[in-house]
Amino acid sequence: MMIVSETTRRALKDFGLTEYEVKAYIALVESGPVPASQLSTTAAIPYSKIYEILGNLERKGWVESEQGRPSKYFAKPPSAALESSRLRMENTLKSSQSDAVSELQPLYEKNGVQERPDIWIVRGQNNILDRIKETLGRTRRELLVAMPIVPDSVISMAAPLLSLMNNRGIKVSVMIPSPTAKDVVRNLKGLADVRVREQMFGGGIISDSNEIIILLGEEPEKGLTLAISSHHAGLVKFGKSYFEFLWENSKPT
């Protein structure tokens, strides 16, 4: 019998299956139609529970049965079972969302509760560097960086973190202006994919498509002086689209 990865088992649980239901479904996918008693042995599920588990899987749309002596159970195609479960979960969530919002939103607005801001102003190079460091530490998949000026303090702070990110397989893309390219490329060699542009107006950092830092105040003598930090989905999406446009028109190093 094939070995199904733990990733796939967790994925099935994300779709609402219990541990025993996952075992039963995978065993049916591997073996084809079998009686409940044989499935109990194959999937290592107590016989006292097997009919309850199969009944649950039938109701959830993962398993069907064919009449006979004894009855046999077989798995529905994974693509169909997963899609129907996804649609059912989405419909349930939409209904639950509507129910909750219709009752809670009027209470929220009536009491004048203030929404928590999702955009922050960060002032001063030390504070900005701390925010950048925190963002790099939270990154798990992809980091996009555009730096119109690259202070030495940024390089010394970022290089060790980028090295750790590189070891974890995180994709890092860095875009810088041509005049500073030589020194930056030397310091980031092997840590990031670096491209250069003749001119850059403003810069920023985007982490995992869900967090952005926009650098507004960049002065050669003072370094970084003002930034905006945000988790706002629309702002992050706009920033990433703009970065990707500039990236496509930049020169590889």
Descriptive report:
- The protein is an alpha+beta fold.
- It has two domains: 1-110, Winged helix-like DNA-binding domain superfamily/Winged helix DNA-binding domain (Arc Repressor Mutant, subunit A, Orthogonal Bundle); 119-252, Endonuclease, Chain A (2-Layer Sandwich), CATH 3.30.870.
- The chain is 51% helix and 22% strand.
- It is built from nine helices and eleven strands.
- The protein has helices at residues 6-14, 19-31, 36-42, 47-60, 78-110, 125-138, 152-167, 181-188, 233-248; strands at 34-35, 63-66, 72-75, 119-123, 142-146, 171-177, 193-197, 203-207, 211-219, 223-230, 251-252.
- The strands form two sheets. The protein has an eight-stranded mixed sheet with strand order 4-10-9-8-5-6-7-11, sandwiched between helices. The protein has a three-stranded antiparallel sheet with strand order 1-3-2.
- It is elongated.
Structural topology:
Layout: H1 6-14, H2 19-31, E1 34-35, H3 36-42, H4 47-60, E2 63-66, E3 72-75, H5 78-110, E4 119-123, H6 125-138, E5 142-146, H7 152-167, E6 171-177, H8 181-188, E7 193-197, E8 203-207, E9 211-219, E10 223-230, H9 233-248, E11 251-252
Parallel strand pairs: 5-6, 6-7
Antiparallel strand pairs: 1-3, 2-3, 4-10, 5-8, 7-11, 8-9, 9-10
Helix pairs in contact: 2-4, 3-4, 6-7
